[in-house]
Amino acid sequence: MDTPQLLLDTLVYLLGLNFALRAGNDHKNLRWTNPQLSLVSSKTGEESLRYTEDISKTNQGGLKSRKIKRKVVFAFPNTTEPRRCLIRCYKLDVQHCPQRKPDAFYLRPLTKPKGDVWFTSTPVGINTLRDTVGRLCAKAGLP
User: What span, in angstroms and rounded, lies between the C-alpha atoms of 67 and 123?
Assistant: First the structure.
């Protein structure tokens, strides 16, 4: 990734594409404590990124839905287009973020990265995430 903003945009795009995160709220609800995203390895050593669905409108965690299994989806390495590999982007994000004090997954990109630190410790706001999702959808030709 060339810039922190490009890494942020790519993560929003690839996470939305692979795990059906549609709106800014879906992205805003990603967190580090009790995470929905985790890097896992198979018995053969192949890495994948696991997404576990959070409680939602249709699965609110009440008595009626306690037996409903949350959706678990895996993303695997993209070896044909490494720049579009979600696992690679996820690792870059982890590598270039400062210690995550807030519980937000997405942090604001620095306009001028400082060495290995590309992001502030301030979370990206919901309006910025909505605008990013909208902008990426428009670029892709989606309504």
Answer: 33
